[in-house]
Amino acid sequence: MTLTAFLAYCAAITLAAATPGPAMFAVITSGVSRGFVRAFMAGIGVAAGDAVLVTLALLGLVALAQTFEWVFHLLKYAGAAYLVFLGVRMWRAAATQSAESRTSQAKLSRSFFLGASIALGNPKAILFHASIMPLILNLDTLTFADGLAVVAVVISVNILTMGLYAALAGRASSWFKTPGRMRLMNRFAGSAMIGTGALIAAR
């Protein structure tokens, strides 16, 4: 794989990761409502899920993935249901809940699962990776090391992009300290999570 092809692939993946979508909205709402750590864990989940999809594309398992599309649908609906559940719970959350309490009670594994399920619940992403690779990379001469580099790019770009969204959302969460602002944040973030869950389920 040439340096030009590698940089072109990096640019394409970065553009795709930065494009607004369910993953971005889930990370931002998690950051605003639960802080940077929870949002960053969701971003790592997105990166892990996307890495699985790009690996399937590299191995030429697109047809197999389409055959077992029900697995991806199951993951999609599980992630969507969890988002709706979080949104409803936020609507009912106490306005005086402190950031320290939210952090200590948080299950980081749930945030990771949320991000991973959103990424894995989009089987069209495999087709995206499978369609963009031949345009930029020479798959006939692609080595195992090249494949590892491609997966590393996907993971790194997703972590950096989602990490940036998480950091911005986490900084914004510090503004919501009064009960009135906390209540407003809970209602806004809860509505956004419910809407994102519905969007994921309807796609």
Describe this entry's structure for a reader:
The protein is mostly helical and 203 residues long. It contains ten helices and no strands. The chain has helices at residues 3-18, 22-34, 36-58, 62-67, 69-91, 99-105, 108-120, 124-136, 144-173, 179-202. Helix 1 (3-18) packs parallel to helix 9, helix 2 packs antiparallel against helix 10 (179-202) and helix 5 packs antiparallel against helix 10 (179-202). The protein is elongated and about 60 Å long. The protein starts with a helix and ends with a helix. Residues 95-105 have low confidence and may be disordered.
List keywords for this structure.
0% strand; 10 helices; mainly alpha; 203 residues; single chain
Q: What are the segments in which pLDDT stays under 50 over at least 5 consecutive residues?
A: 95-105
Q: Measure the end-to-end span.
A: 35 Å
- Structural class by secondary-structure content: mainly alpha
The portion of residues forming beta strands comes to under 5%
Helix content: over 70%
Mean pLDDT: 75
Largest sheet report? none
Q: Gyration radius, to the nearest Å? A: 18 Å
Order of helices and strands: HHHHHHHHHH
Give me the number of helical elements.
10
C-alpha geometry: elongated
Number of strands: 0
